[in-house]
Amino acid sequence: MKKIAVRILLLLLLLVIIAVSIIGINYANNSIHPQSGEGDDLTQAADTITVFNWNLGYAGLGKDSDFIADGGKNFYPPSKEIVQDNLSGIRTIIRNHPADIYLFQEISEPDMLTLGVDVLAGVRETLAHYNWFFTNDISTRFIPQKNAMHHGLATFSRIKTLPVKTIRLPLEPTRLNGLLRRQYHIQVREFDDKAGNNWAVVNIHLSAFDEGGNIRVQQYEKLLEIVDKFYKDGKYVVVAGDWNMQLIPTNFPHTTTEEFLFWLKILPKEALKPDWQLLVDPTFATVRTNERPYTKGENYTTIIDGFLVSPNVKALKIQTLDTNFQFTDHQPVWGEFWAKP
User: Fold this and answer.
1) Which residue segment(s) compose the domain that 237 sits in?
2) CATH for 61
3) How far, in Å, CA of 178 to CA of 152, rounded?
4) Does 246 map to a domain?
């Protein structure tokens, strides 16, 4: 009788754990949980602004990693030590490339994909005097860290801005592994420069694995509607992030076979409003495939990270920083922008 009672108790405990996990997952499926921190010594924007954009791949997709969703064999990074080394390298790159505003995608709190490493905290420490704002696009609640997921978008600013806005984008129709639904959205920072020009800087991360790229296109079209309204309201608009669509034709050397390019989608430029400009540095790729760890000349690479600017904005410089994909599967892009008279 005692054995039966113990088994019943264990079964009930298991059912409670499962129920709490499902509640935590479902709670996260419909929620975006902002976190923020005030900076110090913030200044008003000058005549030009500089923007640094980087998909950090949660510091788990450096040169030593592959990823199962891209055709690789592994879901987790090779080790916690490698994640920590990647984060250290990411912090060095950020530290060596000053900008007024930093935009990050796939930045993570401690979770299963980072093997417990707090990537967000590491970046916050690097940009200690910046105002910061983080919102999840995937997040679970009430689940142990080793099985949890907490990552999304973050913006850091050393100039005074209005409170960051979040605006929803169309969601994928199906859930990740039948449970999680990624909460696609954009972050918008608005501020005035010394000349009185009002800017809107937008951080984006579009869908990656939607069948046929249909959700990506819907998100893209919705994004264009949103930012065009900002422009018509008199704002100077800079959009940056991971578009998850090929922004220009590229032909970087590789040996990746066609089966691992299933995700590739060309951005439909015909949808752009008149005189809006899509800006990239054609010199270097910004993303690599993850069907295997990175070897230059073997993994397929192309350009999916870049800037979109409204007709009243002039780009003074656009630069991709060549990191040889050492710390993440994306490379950072940096831009300097000026408000046209």
Assistant:
1) 31-339
2) 3.60.10.10
3) 20
4) yes
